[in-house]
Structure formats: structure tokens, C-alpha cells
Batch of 2 targets.
Target 1
Amino acid sequence: MNNVQIAACLEETADILEFQAANPFRVRAYRNAARAITEWPESIASMLAAEKPLTEIAGVGADLAEKIAALSMTGVFPLLEELRGQVPQSVLALLRVQGLGPKKAAALHKELKIASLDELREACEAHRVRELKGFGEKTEQAILAGLALASTAHERMLWAEADEWVQQLLAYLRTAPHVEQLQAAGSYRRGRDTVGDLDFLAVSSQPKEVMGLLAEFPEISEVIARGPTKMSVRLAKGPQLDLRVVPAEAFGAALLYFTGSKDHNVVLRGRAKDRGLKINEYGVFEGDRYIAGLTEEDVYATLDLPWFPPELREARHEFEWADAGALPELIEPEQIQGDLHMHTTESDGQASLEEMVAGAQARGLKYIAITDHSKRVSMANGLDGRRLRKQWAQIDRLNEKLKGFTVLKGVEVDILEKGGLDLTDDVLAEADWVVASVHYGQNQPREQITKRILEALANPYVSAIAHPTGRLLNRRNPYDVDLEAVLKAAHEHGKFMELNANPSRLDLDDLACAAAKLQGVPIVISTDAHNVDSLNHIRYGVLQARRAGLGKADVVNTHAWKQVQKLLGKRSAK
DNA sequence: GCCGTTTTCGGCCCGACTGTTTTCAGTCG
């Protein structure tokens, strides 16, 4: 049983306990442990094998350590089995309805014997819900609206999609004359790969007018809530938008609060409490006395903390780093010197070799690798050895004409279903740069996929593994692969792992990149561009690298190509 | 259920908004 599965058991336990109105702190303990295990770079199984205490994981105490060890080894979690017998899965679905929390859901289950979303809808339509104590006509309507919303299955946006909304809304809201400051916050500002709600923070002496302007934004379908300082609306194409308007002296504190993460804020407020201070969205207070809040730096300073880049605010390692005075200096997009994964019209790209080169030069890059598909990827018109050598001869001729820019002879070689690579070593040996990737057989069992990738890493001519989990956000789950083993092998063979900057891919994800850094495996951020415009995607990759705490030195393609070659430690310079 | 330089019990972040209330509980972020 892997960490994700263990975490899922703990989450479900928390759901049921919450539904049963258990001690909310006990519920939180299960949720905290679930999160900690999801983010832990080492598998529980290998910790147990190495006899490392699970209590090393913050949020896992003696009790949970024992339960988790048993779960990992036997696959059985007696407490959860028992709870499942008390509260069926279909009842837990009630908690997913917006506006229904554990208290109301439990009341519906207890008083009206409602055990599914269908039964809930029927009860609302028959006006039985409004008869319950604490419920009313409006609640009944809100539940029906929540049910309708749940059925449209609105998923999290890609960060790149959120960015389009944000830019549009910032431009729109800035037209209000009374907006003094305006900023997008939330998971968007933290650069998460996907974004749920859009959060905006404004400073204005006239909140009503700002909210009035937002209410007139053409794509709004519904105003969910509107008070004196806070407004929530739903946009026609799905996402919810929250706007908070605060006075100038609260901007820093409110930005911090509204950027989150929630867990980061919980730690901050706890630390404030230890010092006899209180932090809320209006500032830092000693008793009733305001002592800071104008900027985020001011707020952090009251706790002797440095300003944290938003990408790090996940309550993972940032506080421990800050306490040790070792907050990493994060990579910046301008530090990227080369792009080592892209396609041309020779396979499934939409631009020629020359166009990709011109596009890369226009973006200030110093080198690129052309990595068209290999022959097995026939749908993409993948290249065999003969066509590749022809392309590489063309690249040699092009390089003679280029000044201060290098085009590398590369290939994206397919890792075959049965194992092995799609091109022979004699061909690969002539390449400057080889990325290997899994395209087929993604449903194979974990052992098989892992073995294929480990073999590829062992090939002396492979430089990196591209899009190492195969996920497509909102469309395709990552294939089942033992990343721990892959990272270990990459380290042993001196290979790199790709962070694919395509906004739908972004794998390795932030957690896996952080694990790679721990293992000493360098990351290469690549666009996998299939046209010139997509060369711009590099910034999405950089954002995820920042979330992983990576600095310039951790990312291979911040270096000049000569240094990359040295790092790779193979074959003579070209 | 976790945690500890206010340690083995008694805390556990904080506030906005809504609806059903007539002072507050529930939900959300």
C-alpha cells in the first residue's frame, strides 16, 4: 500500500469522524496526518523496512504511527472498517454539497433518513427539509442549488487558465477610480498547478463601489454572498470568485491571509499566539493595539520571519528553513538558458527547425535541443535512425551559421511497452541529448512501468526521463510508477529528471521535484513545445520548480550547455 | 489525535456572511 492510498484511508476516516461530530481536533489530526504522508518524500513501506519511526513525520504521533504501520503491512485499517459500517459511503456524499457541513448533513441523515444525493433532492423538492429545526426555505433552495452545481462536476482550472481570468479581471477592476491597490491571491498566487477559486484583494475607501463594479462584470452568473467587505460571485464558465476589500493599513495582513495556504496561516497564527500576539486579516495585534499590517514583510517581521515567496507557503518546509536561516533562493524564469525538449514538423510539431530556433533566440535562449519523436510513436510520424541522422546533419549545417546559439541533436526516444528503447545504441550514441519517455502501456502494473523506466535510466545514452508520470491534469491520471525507485536510479546513473512545463502536464510535480532535490537528482525544465508560442510555457514549469523550493543550481538548464554536458558526465564535448 | 523552554494535560487560528434566529450556529476559506 503506497502513501497516497494510506492518506486516502486517513482522509476517509476523518470524513466519517467529522460526520459523526467527533472531536474536531481529532478529525484535524487525521487530516493533518493524511496530508503529511502525501507530501512525505519516502514511502511508508520503505521507512518500515528501514525501521525508521513513523513519528518522524510531523503530525504522526504514537497512536497513528502504530495504525499506519499496520495498515501499510496488512492493507487493513480496522477503525475505518468499523466506521464504514456505521456511515455508508453514499451518506458521505452529502458533505460534498456546497453549504452542507457535518452538522446539517448529520441532521438530514438522522431526522429524514436521507442516505444519498438523490434522496436529498427528493426531500428538498417535497419541502420536507424546511421542516427540520435549523433549516428553512432558503436552506432548502441552497441545497438544491448545491446539488445542481455538484452534478455539473466543476473541476479545478489549470493555472494557465486561471491566469487568463486573473489578467482579465485585474484589468477590469482597475478601471474603478477608487481602487488604490489590487492583487490576485489564493492558490493562483501560490502558483499551484491547478486553481479552484479566484481570490482578489483590493484596497479602497469605497468597497461598495468596487463590489458594484464586480457585480457588473459581464461573465457573472450569480452573486453568492455580498457583505460590507467581502463578496463572492460565480462566473458563468464555472469558477467562483471572492473579492475582499480592506483599508490600506490592513493590505499586507489581508494579502497574507488571502494568499494562504490555510495551513501556512495556521502556523503563523499559532506562532503569533506563542508571543502573545494575534494575527487576523486586519493586522497583527497586541491586545487591541495594531502593530503591523501594511505589508506582508511587516507582518512576518513581527514574528522574526523573513518574507516567504507565495510558492513556498504550504506549511511544508518553509518554517523549518526560515528557522535555520536557510530559506532557498528560488529559481527565476530569466535564469533559464536553454530548452531541452521540443518538436518540429519532422514529427508532430507545427513549426520547422528554423522557426523553432528563431523563436528560441527571440526569447533570449542560448541553446535548444530538438527532440522529435522516435518511430514507435507512429501517430506523431516518429523518426527512425535514418531520418534522425538526416535531421542531425541539417542541425550541424545550421549550427555553422549560428552565432552564440547552439542547436543540440536530440531525440525523444520511446520506452517500449516490453522494455527497451525504440532506437539502437549506435544511433543514440550520436545524439547530444536524449530524453526517454513512456507513451504506450500506461495502464501496466506499477512493477512493469517502473522496470521499463529503470532500464531506460541505465542506458548510457539517455540523458533524462521526460514527463515522468504521464499525467494530464483533469484528463489522465499519472501512471502507477515507483518514483522513489526511479529517483534513486537516476541518482545512481547520474541522470536528470524532466519537469515538463506544459500547463496540462507539469510532471514531475512540485512534491516529486522536492523529492528529487533531496535525492540529489537535477531537474531539467522543458517546454515540450510543439509550436513556437509554446516556448513561452517555460514559466509554468519554473513556477512549479519554485514551489518545490528549487534554486538556480538545482535546475540543469539554468547552466550553459557546456556545464550541462559536464554534469551529464558522458562523451566528449561536441 | 497531536504536542511540549507556560511538557504528560489542556490547549489546538480567526473572522465574514447567511439563515434562522431574537443571540447564535453552521459553513466557508
Target 2
Amino acid sequence: MAYEIESLNSKKSKKRADLTKAAIKTFAQKGFHRTKISDIAKKAKVADGTVYLYFENKDDLLIKCFEEMLTDLMEKADQRLQAIEDPLEKMLNFIDLHIDYCEKNRDAAKLIIIELRQSPEFYEKYPDFWPIKNYLNYLTKLCKEAIDAGRIREVDPDLLTTIIFGSLDFSITAWLLSKSTIDLKRIRNGVADILHKGLIGDTNNEKND
Amino acid sequence: MAYEIESLNSKKSKKRADLTKAAIKTFAQKGFHRTKISDIAKKAKVADGTVYLYFENKDDLLIKCFEEMLTDLMEKADQRLQAIEDPLEKMLNFIDLHIDYCEKNRDAAKLIIIELRQSPEFYEKYPDFWPIKNYLNYLTKLCKEAIDAGRIREVDPDLLTTIIFGSLDFSITAWLLSKSTIDLKRIRNGVADILHKGLIGDTNNEKND
Amino acid sequence: MAYEIESLNSKKSKKRADLTKAAIKTFAQKGFHRTKISDIAKKAKVADGTVYLYFENKDDLLIKCFEEMLTDLMEKADQRLQAIEDPLEKMLNFIDLHIDYCEKNRDAAKLIIIELRQSPEFYEKYPDFWPIKNYLNYLTKLCKEAIDAGRIREVDPDLLTTIIFGSLDFSITAWLLSKSTIDLKRIRNGVADILHKGLIGDTNNEKND
Amino acid sequence: MAYEIESLNSKKSKKRADLTKAAIKTFAQKGFHRTKISDIAKKAKVADGTVYLYFENKDDLLIKCFEEMLTDLMEKADQRLQAIEDPLEKMLNFIDLHIDYCEKNRDAAKLIIIELRQSPEFYEKYPDFWPIKNYLNYLTKLCKEAIDAGRIREVDPDLLTTIIFGSLDFSITAWLLSKSTIDLKRIRNGVADILHKGLIGDTNNEKND
DNA sequence: AATGAATGAGATTTCATTCAT
DNA sequence: GATGAATGAAATCTCATTCAT
């Protein structure tokens, strides 16, 4: 009995996972508005109506895709950062992870980058829609720890989060639109370098501002 | 005669301007997809069909809105930066201008920030769609000048552009979604500070990296 | 099981047939351009969208109506002509059939006669659009057989087809426009007589018919 | 003064003629429904609104095109047939004229052949719409004269008209759709031959019917 | 008479969602 | 749970016609 239920559950959640996967891929490739529920259903090999057994509606499906991806990312981060001691290193590793993930999952990246901002409509309909919030909080925490540990100087951690994420986000946008001819790794190093040392040359450091 | 012609032209371009203005406002408030042509026509006090005398279709209207705003911004920049000598100051002033403009034209900001990325469909349909290109080039040029003048150290100007714009863009996104409770000026100063001096405190400078 | 499937199929094809029937009627009564999809849907008692489950679009629906009618006509001809031996009689019976069919299915006749030529647009969009082709070929075959059997003299069968069909077609056009006050049967006999004996020959007059 | 009025009139009627000419060409090439008033206006080098100074509306313009063409044809017939004595020759010459005209004025032919039947809508709106009526009457008169003169045997002249016109009409239709690869002259001879001598060979004459 | 900018009614088609099976 | 046929609301865009100039 218990076995059966579990089997059913896993069967059920497999179908759910299939749907999310199919949705991420299709949303990323065609964009939210051009994606038909029937596209996703076909890719997941279920009937159209089945989608509505697992998700409330198309909006909900998109939101669940975001949650899925970002949760996934944060779990990966948990694993990878666990072994690292230095808070600054943790922060830099988080950045690497984000870039790696986007590089390897172009579809997911496209969703996070482009569709995330898609929808003033979403903000209207779901006033608290800002699926990236937890993810940003995660980064903010890392920033705080690095500051508290004295590994970076005292700056507003929220602001720092915004700058880091914004820089990465826009870099990746450019990368996506450039059809990936840009080297994301080089960008990552450049961003780290500039944020790290600032824009002023070492020798000029004392004289300016 | 000349008067009459001019009068006709100006009447015509006034209607065009009215339509663009109405479109920017409506697109910003409801989002591109939820905006009906008839919404815009009503706001501009013309018949629906009239929109199509001035713009090819809804897509074209959105693109023309982008062009209008960004051209406007760059013209304003030209005026303001003319009087400034120091290239670094020019760059910082450009940032200020961007922030000021967004602060004063929330609708335009929303369009630039949110709808600009909206549309994988746009990228598919119009392969060269990236209306912000000229604007980014403008900023890159300022970066280059500041570097050449030795006012900031030798970094890749394209990368710097990406970081600056990405930081601002995401800050403004947060500001828009926070319903403007954040202080954009504070953010601007923070961004300038971090980019300027980097994340490493003076005292720590020797020890790290 | 088999029953169920059949039931589904027949239910499906019944709806399709309903739609075609409704379309033929409406197209004939109002003309293609003045017919709205919603007119047809209403007459077939389905929702507008349902039409698009069975036909690609309005054009396709019209084409399918033609195919349906002409196939129907040729099947009827197959049945009726089977029992007839004499090739000339076959040909004459085919003519009768055509006239009978038009007389009994005024709507279908109207479509075949009037809407069939309606659409330079159709010829442009679908370069092979000439739905009556098979039907004319059918008649040509009968002509050939009558010639080969020596029942009518050696004339170009394609030309003969054109003359027969053209005569009938225009007679029926006149009949349709005259609101059916003309006697189609009398016309049929007249056509047969003239084609048969030609226009000359007072001297032959007495011997024949 | 008189001069001025005449000049005005001719100027006016020139514009009218230009419009009709432009309309015939455009209707023939694109079909009635796909032709925009602005297409015609542009081709006639006048403003859209000007069309409405000469014609009531688009329907009226089409009707006037028919009238223009058919009147033209009948005038040409008057001239050509005047010199001919034999009523049968007159009839055959009329056929030739019709075919020549269509061959030389493909656009006009297309209009007469295809667009003439265009419009159940027309028959609904204008119950007496049958622009070809006078033209058919002309042919009927010729038929009658040939019969009365004993040049062809006693048949119903209306029916004969229908057969002749129907045969020609459908031949020309096929010719138009075949993109003119068919030889109209051969067709004309074939039609004349069959109508003339009938379908029954001399030798078979006695055996049949 | 001539213009052509403006009008606005009108219809096809799409597709998220439902619900009977 | 699963299906997929059916629904029907919704919105872009066209173009004949008008009318102020």
C-alpha cells in the first residue's frame, strides 16, 4: 500500500518534473507569450488538460519554472560553498556558479534573464511577484559575511548585491543576444577585477576622490 | 504658403508625437501585450485606424517609442556634457542623467528597463533588435575617453559599460518594483563609490589579492 | 471498444459534414466574402473556434466544399453510368445528372457556377486551384469513349468537353439568375439537339430526332 | 465660353476615362476584393477622394467598367458587321470579334469572364445586375437573323445564344487560367465546326438516334 | 473640383481553459 | 487521474468612405 502510494507520488512528481522541464525549454525558446500550453503538453507527452492538473494556469506554470530553477541553483550553491571557508571566496564562487549555470543551461538563463522581467502584467496580477528575491537574499547574505569578516570593506550589502547581480545579469544578456560569441569567463574575471580593485589605478589610489 | 506647409507638417508631427507619448505611457503602465491599440488611440484622442497612418503596426510603435526615448536621452546628454571638461566627470554625469531621467519619467524608465528585454519574439522577428545599442555605445565612448585621459585605469571599456549599465539598470528595476521607496540618489552614490574605489578597503589594500 | 472508436469517428465526421453542409448553404446564399465564419458556425451549431478544428481557414473551407460537391457528383455518376452500355448514352446521362443535381441543389449549383470563378485571389494564392479539373476530366473521358466507339464523329475531346460544360454552365447561370423561371429540362434537350445535329441541315431535319 | 465648358467637360471625362481604365486593369489583375480604391486612384494619378466625384462607390465603379467594356465591344461590332451581308457570316464574325478582343485585352477578358460572376452580393444588392444582358441581346439578334434568313436551321435563338456564349466563355476561362498557352483561334474554329455540323459524322448520320 | 488625413466598423483567427468521458 | 474536443472572448489591422480645407 505504502509502496503503491509512493509509486504514485513519484509517478506524479515525475510528470510534474517533465512538465516543468518542457516548459522551461519552450518558454526559453519561444518566449512566454508565443508558447502555447499545447506546445508544452506535446513536448511532455501529455494531454493539454493534464497540465491543469499540476498547475493552476499558464502564469502559475511560469512562476513554478522560476522557482524550480532558482531553488535548483541555490541547492547547487549550498553544496559547492559548503567546503569553502573564506567568505570572499564563497561570494566569488557564487558568481562563478551563476555564470556556469547560465552557460550550461542557456534555456534557463534566457528565462531568468529575459522572461523574468517580462511582465508588468505579472507585477500587476501578483503584487509580490519577484521570484528572484530569495536568490538575491542568498547573495546578500554572502556579501554580508564577507564584509563582517573584513574581507571586503564596509559597503551596503544590498547595494553590493544589486551591483553584482546587475553586472552579471546584463553581461549574460549581452552574451545571449550575441549568440554566445562572447567569452563569459573573461567577463567574469573582468567584473571581479573591477569590483575588487575599483577603477582607479594603484598608484592613483591615494590621490583621487 | 510656406506657413501652411509648415503648419501641416507640424500638425502631422504633433499627432505623431502625441501617439508616441500615449504609447509610452500605456505600454509602461500595462505592459506591451496588455496594451490594446485602441487604448493608445483613445489616450491620444484619435481613431484606432489613425495609429496605422503613423506606424506600421504595434511592434513598430514599440520600437519607435524606444528610439524616441533613447534619442531624447542622448540629446540631453550632448547638451549637458558639452560644458564639462574632465572625461571622468562626463562619465559620472552621464550616469546622473540616466538616473534623473528615469526618476522623472517613470513610464519611460519602465519601458527601457522592463519592456526592452521583453521580447524574444522581437529578437526573432527583427534580428537586429537591440535598440539600446547606440546608447551603450555612447557610454562606451565616455569610458574610453576617461581611460585614455588616465582618469581611470586601463580596463576593457566594453566590459566597464556593461558593469555600469547593468548596475544602474538593475538598481532602477528594484526601484521600480519597490514602488520608488528606495532612494535612487543614494544608490547612484553607492555605485559610483564601489566602482571607483573597489571593494577593498584602503587599509586592506596591501594584504589582499 | 471498436464500437466506441467508430462512434467517435462518426461523431467527428458528422460534425465535419455538418460544417460543410452549413458552409455550402451559407456561401451559396451570401457569397464567399459576405459569409462570416460565425454565420457558418451558428448554422452548424458549434462555436466559432470549432470550425478551425476541422478546416485550416476560410479559404480551405471553401475549397473543401468544392471537393465535397464534385466528388459527390462523380460518385453519383459512377453509380448511374455503370448500368449504361452505350458510350453516347453515358455522356448524355452525365449531362442529365449535372442538370438534375443543380436543379435539386440550388445552393451547390450556385457555388459551382458562381463562386468557383470568383477568386482570382484563389488562383494567385493556390496556383493549382481549379477544383473542377477532375470533374472535367471525367467528362472528357466519356467524350473520348463515345468518339472511340464511333458514336460521335472525330472531334477534339477536350474541346468538346469545354463546349458541353460551357453551355451547361452558362445555361445554369442564366437559370439561377432568372430565379429558376426557365425550364432546365428544355434547355438540356436543346443543347443536346444542337450539339448533336449541328446548326445546319434543313434537309436532315426531317430524318432525325 | 462654350469652348471652356467643352474643355472642362473633356477634361472631366478624360479623368473619368483614366479612372475606368485604371480600374479595369487593377480589378483584372488583383480581383475586385483585393483592389483598393487607393490602388486605382494612384494608377490614375488622382487623390482617393476624387474617385468619389465620378463614381458613387466601389461597386458602381465595377459596374461602370463592365458597361464601358461591353459598350465598346458592341460599337466595334457595329462597325465590323456593317459591311457584311450574310447573317451567318455576321454571327461568326461576332464570335471572332469577341475572341480577338479577349485575346488583345487580357485584362478586360478577365473582368468579363471572372469578375462578372463575382458577386452574389451584387445580385442581392442590385437585383437587375446582369451587365452582359445587352451584349447577349446583340448576339441573340444576330442568331435570329441567321435563322430567319434560313442560314441556320430553326432553333431557339435564346438557347443558341446561351450555347455560343457559354462555349466561348468557358474556353476563354480555360485559356486565361492556362496562362494563354492554348490557341484561342483553334478553339474558335473547333467551336464553329461542332456547332455547325454537329457531332454526328456524315456517314453515321443515318444510323444514329 | 480636388485633396488626402482621418475615421471606425468589422471579421478572422488564436489559444487558455473547461469538462464530459 | 488523464484526455482532447469544444469553447468563445478578445484584438489587430484594413480600407471604403467622408469632409474640412
